[in-house]
Amino acid sequence: MRLRLTMAIGAIGLTVLSACGSADNEQGAATAPASGTTRKAVPASAANLPTTRPGGPFIGKWYARLTPEQAVGGDVRMAGKFRLALRADGTYTTFQELDGESDGHYRMATGNRLVFKQDDGCDVFTGRRGGSVGVYRWSMNGSHMKLTSIVPETGGCTGRTESLVMPVWQRR
Q1: Residue 166 DSSP code
Q2: Angle subtended by helix axes 158-165 and 2-11, to nearest 10
Q3: CA nearest neighbour of 16 among 46, 43, 44
Q4: Is 155 left (phi over 0), alpha (psi -120 to 50) or beta?
Q5: Could you read off the pLDDT of 49-98 as tens digits, one per residue?
Q6: Is residue 41 in a domain?
């Protein structure tokens, strides 16, 4: 939690908070335009990206160890052991030694993308409204998985980003 609070406070001046999709509309569906009007295409973002229930090779338990040298570019205090559990019911748990364990929800999107949201460690920054959302691309190489941030976190949750993208995850 210390890392998330420190990172969020430092990033407030650099981050423009955007509106997030609610849990009531997880598919990002838009209402139909009024008769006789046309609707412009809305670019995919964390708020309106269509998602589905997770299903894929990323589901399971993942582990990593990060050295201080590997943590350069992030917070070197994050060096240590990491765990990530991605469950088929759309919930996840992360663990890293600096901040401990955190639970949240995720959904699957097209193009090997995962949308992470409603993290109990991140939502402290959004008044527990679930407004912290991030989109990540996953790639697999044998028993290893790499997550890459492709839509920056809304709501100031840079700790989740570093916890997900810094390690190369290994299935055991």
Answers
A1: S
A2: 120
A3: 46
A4: left
A5: 788 889 999 999 999 999 888 877 667 888 899 999 999 999 999 998 88
A6: no
- Alpha-carbon dihedral sign for residues 102, 90, 146, 157: negative
Q: What gap in Å lies between CA 102 and CA 100, rounded to an integer?
A: 7
In a domain, 88, yes or no: yes
Longest CA–CA span in the chain (Å) reads 59
Indicate the pTM of the whole model.
Answer: 0.69
Write down the H helix ranges in 20-170. Answer: 158-165
* Total domains, the chain: 1
Cα 164 from Cα 94, distance rounded (Å): 8
Rama region for 110: left / alpha / beta (φ>0; ψ in -120 to 50; rest): beta
User: pLDDT at residue 172 above 80?
Assistant: yes
Q: Is residue 13 part of a domain?
A: no
Domain hosting residue 71, numbered range: 2-8+51-171
CATH of residue 124:
2.40.128
Give the span between the Cα atoms of 93 and 30, in whole angstroms. 30
Residue with structure tokens 């949240």? Answer: 104
